[in-house]
Amino acid sequence: MQTNFSPTQLADPDTAVANGILRTCVHCGFCTATCPTFVTLGDELDSPRGRIYLIKDMLESGRPATEEVVRHVDRCLSCLSCMTTCPSGVHYMHLVDHARAYIEETYERPWPERMLRRALSKLIPYPGRFRLALRAAKLGRPFARLIPGQSMTAKRLRAMLALSPGALPSTEPGQGPGVYRAEGERRGRVALLTGCAQKVLSPSINLATIRLLNRMGIEVVVKAEQGCCGSLDHHMGHHEPAMRFAQANVEAWSAEMEREGLDAIVVNASGCGTTVKDYGFMFREAAPDLAVKAARVSALAMDITEVLEKFDYAPTRAKPGMTVAYHSACSLQHGQKITTLPKQLLTRAGFTVKEPAEGHLCCGSAGTYNILQPEIAGQLKARKLENIQRTKADIVAAGNIGCLTQLSSGNLPVVHTVELLDWMNGGPRPSGV
Prior knowledge:
Strand order of the largest sheet: 1-3-2-4-5
Low-confidence stretches: none
Number of domains: 4
CATH architecture of the largest domain: 3-Layer(aba) Sandwich
Number of strands: 9
Strand content: 5-15%
CATH topology of the largest domain: Rossmann fold
CATH class of the largest domain: Alpha Beta
Largest sheet: 5 strands, mixed
């Protein structure tokens, strides 16, 4: 693809990166076949190729984003299926992230949307605030159908209330800051990102992770200074808040590396893992010391399944005689290129594993997408649940809290992969299984 950026524009590091990405695209259109929004809507501008044209024109012109550009970029799930399909290696993730930041700088959204986005940014990354918000949402759930109208604001409010859980898990101890000692001889030492929304929605995931790693002889460190990975703000174009969250994590884990060393930084929410593994890129223009730290953190970041394989996970219980439908989260299969490992571990643990049809298509969760784009998210969710149902499985397993929340309204219990692996290694049976 030819580009026409001026030397002044190319002096900006982000624009220079975007230029390189744009020039990699060869217009082949392979990405359209695997893009969930194009498959659902059939609009070229709701495909990666179409969005690339819109972003190119917006950035080259230097004009503020238009409503048309914003509408089609907002519809992108950032599922990154296009990056798996692309034969030319177009790094669409970095391009669309830059476009979103540009949009936030140059475009004024309608005030209800601005307020909603601000609320999501100020609530979800903070577990205490998020828990209070969910308690309030629980009170409002019975009245969701009374919200009048078919405006996008009304649809978003109804979707937000529908997604809130009917009951919140109790605040269980055992995932807070501290050092969780290995059982027996210590074989390794890792830091664990406990996340923000996950700590509130499903604390059992972190508890299972710590239990399992400890039994495998791995010491787990949870740093008090860590927090949200920054992905929620990052994917809404809120650059500065995202970088503040990310820097706090980089500094916390770097200090631990210097103190006693780490074999890995474990992430058990794949959406967070994709972002943490990108910290090196995000801080490439930072002060040299910070840039080096961020690159080291990215290099050390691993999904929980990668860590379990590294330390030779093995089951201790008899085969459970259950079939698992494994839902491959987009951030895991497309963002981190981890495809077969979770299925191999589940098979090793004694489960029969089936992968639903159209496994490359997003379930519609995508961070806050199921709130901000409820209609498209709803269609993708229904499609995914139908494909899962056809597997005739007993359980659904996935490696991302967003997917687990999105798919929890189906007919099957939905649990994190690590909870099943923990169970088969001597941990408790996951709730609902």
